[in-house]
Design a protein that fits this description.
The complex is a heterotrimer of chains A (345), B (381) and C (602).
Chain A: H1 3-34, H2 41-57, H3 63-85, H4 89-111, H5 119-130, H6 133-142, H7 150-172, E1 186-189, E2 192-195, H8 196-217, H9 220-226, H10 232-237, H11 242-264, H12 275-288, H13 294-314, H14 319-338
Helix pairs in contact in A: 1-8, 1-11, 1-12, 1-13, 2-5, 2-7, 2-11, 2-12, 3-4, 3-6, 5-11, 6-11, 8-11, 12-13, 13-14
Chain B: H1 3-16, E1 25-31, H2 38-47, E2 54-55, E3 58-66, H3 71-84, E4 89-91, H4 96-109, E5 113-115, E6 133-135, H5 140-153, E7 158-164, H6 167-183, E8 186-193, H7 201-209, E9 214-218, H8 225-233, E10 239-242, H9 249-255, E11 263-266, H10 279-295, H11 301-321, H12 329-340, E12 345-347, E13 350-352, E14 368-373, E15 376-379
Parallel strand pairs in B: 1-3, 1-4, 4-5, 5-6, 7-8, 7-9, 9-10, 10-11
Antiparallel strand pairs in B: 2-3, 11-14, 12-13, 14-15
Helix pairs in contact in B: 2-11, 3-4, 5-6, 11-12
Chain C: H1 2-20, H2 23-48, H3 56-72, H4 87-109, H5 116-134, E1 144-145, E2 151-152, E3 155-156, H6 160-182, H7 185-191, H8 197-202, H9 207-233, E4 235-236, H10 243-256, H11 261-286, H12 293-307, H13 312-319, E5 353-364, E6 367-378, E7 382-386, H14 393-400, E8 408-413, E9 416-417, H15 423-429, E10 431-433, H16 446-451, H17 462-466, H18 471-488, H19 503-516, E11 521-525, H20 533-548, E12 552-556, H21 560-566, E13 569-574, E14 577-582, H22 584-589, H23 591-598
Parallel strand pairs in C: 7-12, 7-13, 10-11, 11-12
Antiparallel strand pairs in C: 1-4, 2-3, 5-6, 5-8, 8-9, 13-14
The chains are: A mainly alpha (345), B alpha/beta (381), C alpha/beta (602).
GO molecular function, one term (chain C): ATP binding
Domain ABC transporter (chain C): 355-600
GO cellular component, one term (chain C): plasma membrane
Chain lengths: 345, 381, 602
């Protein structure tokens, strides 16, 4: 092992670690607000990457129909609520707007020459199709059981993940996808070649991490949102309903997931079922942060990336074993520090 | 306590969905069209509608099941086909471990099984049980011999290898260890990766540090791309070899410029325009055309393996019909004998000559050396 | 008893199944049995014990790989040669190995709390799975083939119908054992894990031991299932032991009903059949192109969790007419069996010093919650600790009951310092307590709740519980609980669910539970809160009676009327300090106390 190799591996570890950190933060965010461990977060990553790939390779972009179906379901639920609670013009209008949005997205995807439009437009379109799936997912699957025991929430979360992997296979097929880099430039640091895409990943992640941190640790609104799970009154005072808080965090988590997917799609091959293992590593980071602390989780996630990169070099056969066995001491440390005999439920 | 009432009801409900037996040849197909090896199983499942529907005046019907890449599910599917559907033969499963787990059940019930899997272990060494198994893919060793032959010819003395941590990569590293030792090529590094890994930097660096003359990548489907692009990015200049696992169009699409010059050995399906006319070429061309017309994309070779299984059956059924009616043990046994006597039958993958000892039946006509040039497959001469 | 007849009928039906069902259905039933065995462990671990595990599949793998290695390897190392390829000996080795691994993993991860535990099980589950795949001796990812069938009395079980009997006999035995275990002294300790750990510890239950016990049992069930799986399949590779199977097992447990032994069977059955049906049904709806099974499967689970979060079993039970759902009588008919009375502690002499706090100070950071507190409780005396809200009474209570340790000073119980003692230790020494916020297990019967108090007075362990060899001791324990319940006036509610009692009754239940431990000191945290006048009178009578028997009682209380008429001495606290001590009438006229309660007269 020499410096050059260490640098290459370090670069690799930090790039992956940055993504894990982003996911770890979304996981903590969703958990603190809704008590849900968001297992399907990984599917947003793969959906983001594969949607971009579908655009660029001229494949069938049927994913937009998923949005249409989900939006229709969501509207159906809203409508049912309207009928039982009495009509309200503003709410009816809102349902119409949501449906119109989905229809517009379908029209855009079906008519635009997706392969030729500028990459920024592809990114925007991907985000616009996929991010609304987050709040809709909360609305349909989690909102009705928001006060269920943690185990039930966890099982539903996993079941949604299973369904989404199935959707992924259906929409994107079994083969992997890899997109064009944002820019093809490379540059030399010492005797190591750095790709500009890795810089993109690190910079955007850093930007998102810092903004998340500032938004949720430094603003009153963010704090109130975070506190919804434990302090409903405080949240209400800020005009936040638990339902809204759930949807908002899911939207944010979906955004971060999809953005992560778009960011790493040019440097790796992602498959319809890659999401789980990626989000699992985000979970490791979140655990190191005790499911509460943003900075610790971010550091932990980057550490996971680095450990992964180096164990890949030293013992590629045992990589996963090393990464996942290393969590246990962290878990122990966390668990010993956080409480002694505790009564759940 | 309702369990006692519901359970049998549930079970009977499931039994009723089984269709009544008709006088036709029934063939079961088990593929892994979901789960980790879906990229192998989906083209296979997609091939089922293209399989021959008549043979020797009898219609052939197909019942297609998915095993989610899970060997326990494969057993369930096989038992369902054998015991409930009373099929005369089974094509599948997609995965090597899945196949290893069902051989005894095929043998026990006397049902011929045509396995489109890579590992030679399903037919070698020949045992009483494996008599019922026929393998419609080239043995990894057959492909590997072509590659090693090319390595020796071009003066490769040292070889690095990156393979998937799955049965595919595992079998290839076994085969290569043996062939390289015979050919006097030194294996400098053998690295493993998971299909879903987002980075292969470490493995690739490790291989580069051992500075081999050439590198072989053994991975199924599009997972074969990333090791190669990573090696290229890190400035590896030696020759890169791929296995027939890479022989599908997404490889070119995902790899782009980085996979230029790659050499692989695979069936002639990739280079139909360049090979001289032969019965195999004719069949392969028809298969590729039909598949593309139906599914809007060219088939991976995995699909061709299932197509060939269909052809083998079509070829054997008329002989078997002389010994018994479909649905009887006599027919299945005769079908097995007929399959074992297959000679000079052309398929998409090459020409089959089965013998009691060799249930794979390929010779060198089962593979071509192919190189990537200008982002397309060309026959290496 | 009706439910017993149903069980017998079920067993007979199972026995007849291979004779009447087509072979494929028998094959499916074999898998259902194998899965149910694993899920049964999860019911114990997750449903009863409240610990979620994704790692059960890895234990299945451990059992399967051990037997595959031992029975299908040509040349075993010399030290293993004694197993000589026998499936039964490999089972033994597999179970021992699993026990060792489970104990190690359990010791490491069962201390994890909340969501850390499930994520911890994912971690070692994945690690073990990859370990199977990387090991060459275990056949790597390609697996091990050619396993011999299990031989029973020299007859190889190589047919599905033959395996069927072995699998289902083992499963039914496992269900019987589990059911037995849950209805025992050890079982009550296990059932207290979910939501009652603090309470159980203060009744002398070693909750960590209980956790290890069920973790071990569930691992052994899984390994057993793995052993059967390996010899049924006669080929293994790592796939069935990965995380996705671990998730499937949890799905089965939750779908069936995670809190019930029969839920395990139901869940395993429903999920296995559902997968078959979906494969038959969905192509008819969506056509052959594409695979919709996983999507529909995932959505189906979401739907079930929405409609019945407790699983399908409780829903089925509700369909059964009420008369069939009669409550189980745990106690034998009166006069039928008279189990020996439990031995009793020798109560100390009246007037002997039982509990003494010496200069107890407790600081939390800069906050001094208790400052140099002194108090004494004697046998045959009731002492009340009172004070306005926030005076530090609860902190003091925690110091006295060894839940918390003083920053300085010490607490002496019968002359011995409580320093370093756990609440479990002090329970053993004869101190028993109730809680300010009632802590009981709402779905358990009143009788069983109270019997937890007598935990330390029984000694029979897990194995005799599982085989129900401890019935005599169990009857003694339950009769003691019944006696205490009658003593406090809850004799009519023995078989009610504890959660259905009124709050006042629940407080009384806690006292009965504390009495069941046969203590010499009772610590009561606001026993009269929420009681009606009549109930208070009865409680006062009871406490007086206990005092006359020589019991030492300390109570923290708000209700002045209750305190003044009952207790012998009072200690008053304010701002963490003792401001007065004396007889009730002295306290009533003490100016410092009046000021503390009524505010200063400016």
């Amino acid at each position: 092992m020499n410096l050059q190799i260490a640098m290459l591996l370090g670069q690799d570890g930090i790039t992956n670690g940055a993504i894990y950190a982003l996911l770890a933060l979304s996981i903590i965010l969703v958990f603190t607000v809704t008590r849900i461990l968001l297992i399907p977060l990984g599917e947003f990553v793969t959906f983001g990457a594969l949607t971009m790939y579908a655009f660029q390779s001229g494949q069938d972009s049927s994913i937009v129909w998923l949005l249409m179906i989900m939006m229709a379901l969501d509207a159906g639920l809203d409508l049912k609520q309207l009928v039982t609670n009495g009509m309200e013009a503003r709410k009816a209008q809102w349902i119409g707007l949501k449906l119109a949005y989905a229809v517009i997205m379908v029209i855009l995807v079906e008519t635009l020459p997706l392969q030729e439009i500028h990459m920024a437009a592809q990114v925007l379109l991907t985000l616009m199709i996929l991010v609304p799936l987050g709040p809709i997912m909360y609305r349909i699957f989690f909102q009705p059981i928001a006060s269920a025991p943690p185990l039930v929430l966890l099982i539903v979360s996993i079941a949604v993940h299973v369904a989404m992997v199935g959707v992924g296979l259906l929409m994107f097929g079994p083969e992997g996808g890899r997109t064009a880099p944002f820019s093809a430039a490379t540059f030399q640091v010492g005797n190591v070649m750095l790709k500009s895409q890795t810089l993109w990943v690190i910079l955007v992640s850093l930007f998102l991490i810092v903004s998340l941190f500032l938004a949720f640790e430094r603003t009153l609104y963010g704090k109130a949102l975070r506190a919804t799970a434990v302090n409903r009154m405080g949240a209400r005072l800020m005009g936040i309903s638990p339902d809204f808080a759930g949807k908002a965090t899911f939207a944010l988590a979906a955004f971060i997931g999809v953005a992560s997917g778009i960011l790493i799609a040019p440097i790796t091959t992602l498959y319809y079922d890659s999401g789980f293992i990626i989000s699992l590593k985000g979970f490791v980071g979140a655990i190191i942060g005790g499911l509460i602390s943003y900075p610790l989780a971010a550091i932990g996630a980057v550490a996971v990336g680095l450990i992964e990169a180096f164990s890949m070099f030293w013992a590629s056969n045992y990589k996963e074993i090393i990464v996942f066995t290393l969590i246990i001491p962290f878990l122990l440390w966390r668990s010993i520090n956080s409480s002694h005999v505790e009564d759940e439920e | 306590m309702l369990l006692k009432k519901t359970l049998p009801a549930l079970i009977l409900g499931s039994a009723l969905t089984a269709t009544a037996t008709q006088a036709e040849v029934k063939v079961g197909v088990v593929t892994s069209s979901t789960g980790p090896i879906a990229l192998v199983g989906i083209p296979q499942k997609n091939t089922v509608p293209l399989l021959p529907t008549t043979a020797g005046g009898e219609t052939i019907s197909y019942i297609s099941l998915d095993d989610s890449s899970d060997p326990s599910a494969t057993v369930k599917a096989f038992k369902k086909l054998i015991e409930d559907e009373k099929v005369d033969a089974i094509i599948g499963p997609s995965g090597s471990p899945n196949a290893m787990g069902v051989i005894q059940f095929a043998a026990e019930s006397g049902t011929p099984m045509l396995a489109p899997v890579g590992t030679a272990a399903v037919v070698l060494p020949m045992t009483e049980d494996k008599k019922w198994v026929f393998k419609t893919t080239q043995n990894d060793e057959l492909i590997a011999k072509a590659l090693v032959g090319h390595m020796v010819d071009s003066g490769v003395k040292t070889l690095g290898m990156i393979g998937t941590a799955d049965p595919y990569g595992e079998n290839w590293s076994l085969v290569m260890a043996k062939l390289c030792a015979e050919a006097g090529i030194k294996l400098t590094a053998v690295e493993r990766f998971q299909r879903q890994d987002t980075s292969i930097t470490g493995q690739s660096l490790k291989v580069m540090m051992s500075s081999p003359d050439a590198v072989l990548i053994a991975a199924p489907g599009s997972s074969s791309v990333m090791p190669e692009t990573t090696l290229k990015e890190q400035g590896y200049a030696g020759q890169i070899y791929q296995t027939h696992g890479a022989a599908l169009d997404p490889f070119l699409k995902l790899g782009g410029q980085a996979v230029e010059g790659t050499i692989l050995a695979a069936s002639l399906m990739l280079v139909l325009d360049e090979v001289p006319d032969s019965p195999a070429k004719e069949i392969a061309s028809k298969y590729v055309a039909d598949y593309t017309a139906m599914h809007g994309e060219t088939p991976a070779t995995f699909g061709g393996n299932v197509y060939d299984a269909g052809l083998l059956l079509q070829n054997a059924i008329p002989t078997a019909l002389e010994s018994g009616k479909p649905g009887t043990p006599e027919f299945r046994s005769a079908l097995r004998d007929a399959l074992e006597n297959t000679s000079e039958m052309a398929g998409t993958q090459g020409v089959y000559n089965m013998t009691p000892e060799d249930h794979s039946g390929f010779d060198e006509r089962g593979r071509e050396l192919i190189q990537v040039e200008n982002n397309s497959w060309t026959l290496l001469k | 008893m009706k439910s017993r007849h149903l069980v017998i009928l079920f067993v007979v039906l199972v026995g007849l199944a291979p004779a009447v069902l087509p072979t494929f259905q028998v094959t499916l039933l074999n898998y259902i049995g194998l899965y149910a065995l694993v899920v049964l462990g999860l019911v114990l671990l997750t449903g009863v014990g409240g610990m979620t595990s994704f790692g059960q599949a890895a234990f299945v793998g451990l059992g399967a790989y051990t037997t595959a290695y031992l029975t299908a390897t040509d040349q075993l190392p010399a030290w293993l040669a004694w197993t000589s390829g026998s499936a039964w000996l490999s089972l033994l080795v597999g179970l021992v190995l699993t026990a060792v691994v489970a104990l190690t993993l359990g010791a490491l991860t069962l201390r994890l709390s909340g969501h850390y535990l499930p994520l911890g099980t994912i971690a070692w589950g994945i690690s073990l799975y990859y370990l199977f795949g990387t090991s060459h001796t275990l056949g790597g990812h390609s697996g091990i083939s050619g396993l011999p069938p299990i031989e029973l009395f020299g007859m190889p079980l190589d047919k599905g119908e033959e395996m069927f009997y072995l699998i289902w006999v083992i499963l039914l035995l496992a269900m019987w054992i589990t059911q037995n275990l849950l209805n025992s002294r050890e079982g009550r300790a296990i059932r207290a894990l979910k939501g009652g750990q603090l309470m159980a510890e203060s009744m002398g239950v070693n909750t960590f031991r209980s956790k290890i016990v069920i973790f071990l049992i569930s691992a052994l069930f899984a390994a057993l299932s793995g052993w059967l799986y390996a010899h049924n399949q006669r080929f293994i590779n790592p796939t069935p032991f990965g995380l996705s199977m671990g998730i499937d097992y949890l799905f089965m447990a939750l779908i069936g009903g995670v809190a019930n032994v029969w839920g395990a069977l139901l869940g395993a059955g429903i999920l296995t059949m559902a997968k078959e049906w979906l494969q038959d049904l969905l192509p008819l709806i969506f056509g052959d192109k594409g695979n919709y099974e996983h999507i529909v499967f995932g959505l189906l689970i979401v739907l079930i969790m929405h409609k019945t979060p407790g699983g399908l079993w409780p829903m089925l039970v509700k369909l059964v007419p009420a008369r069939l759902r009669q409550k189980k009588k745990l106690l034998p008919e009166a006069g039928k069996t008279e189990a020996p009375k439990l031995p009793q502690r020798n109560l100390p002499e009246r007037g002997e010093l039982i509990l003494e706090a010496k200069d107890v100070t407790r600081q939390f950071g800069g906050l001094v919650a208790n400052k140099e507190m002194n108090l004494q409780v004697h046998a045959g005396e009731i002492l009340a600790l009172i004070g306005p809200n926030g005076a530090g009474k609860s902190t003091m209570f925690n110091q006295l009951s060894a839940v918390d340790t003083p920053t300085s000073g010490e607490v002496l119980f019968r002359g011995a310092s409580l320093k370093g003692k756990s609440s479990r230790d002090v329970a053993n020494l004869g101190m028993s307590r109730t809680f300010q916020h009632v802590k009981l297990l709402p779905t358990m019967t009143v009788l069983e709740n109270v019997a937890i108090g007598a935990h330390l007075r029984g000694s029979k362990g897990v194995i005799s519980s599982a085989l129900h060899l401890e019935r005599l001791e169990e009857t003694s324990l339950l009769q003691e609980a019944e006696r205490q319940l009658k003593r406090v006036g809850l004799g009519d509610y023995l078989y009610e669910e504890a959660g259905s009692l009124a709050l006042g009754q629940q407080r009384i239940l806690e006292i009965a539970r504390a009495l069941c431990a046969d203590p010499c000191l009772l610590l009561l945290d606001e026993p009269a809160a929420g009681l009606r006048h009549k109930e208070k009178q009865a409680l006062a009578e009871l406490l007086s009676k206990l005092r006359s028997e020589g019991m030492a009682i300390l109570l923290v209380e708000h209700d002045m009327d209750f305190v003044m008429g009952l207790v012998d001495r009072i200690v008053v606290m304010e701002f963490g300090e003792k401001i007065a001590e004396g007889l009730p009438e002295e306290i009533q006229t003490n100016p410092a106390v009046l000021e503390a309660y009524l505010g200063g007269a400016d």
